[in-house]
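Can't paste images in this forum, so I'm doing it all in text. The chain is below; anyone willing to post the predicted structure tokens underneath?
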Amino acid sequence: MAKRDYTPTYRVEFRTNLCESLYQMKLQSSPWDCKRDGRPTADNAEKYRREMNQSFLPGGVNYHISESRNVIIHVNYVRIIRQSTNETVAEVKAPIFDFTH
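Text version of the structure:
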């Protein structure tokens, strides 16, 4: 049986504290998985942002990226976009003084 390609309904984009951001891009994006991440709401986007921040700390799954950049990476902006219309359905920004670590 052939594997079919599909476009996810939503994608999530985020910015970090790095000037060039992750992977030399201004905005990093990936599919938003409604089964794993829940409905695309501002509350779930904030939960995603906090979980990403935790992953860049020592012991987190993305700590090797922070370590290679010599800085603890901090996600400060997240938005969820409906792929078919390019509409932003949820968006969160970190507070100026964010102490979620």
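The chain has a mean pLDDT of 85. The chain is about 25% helix and 25% strand.
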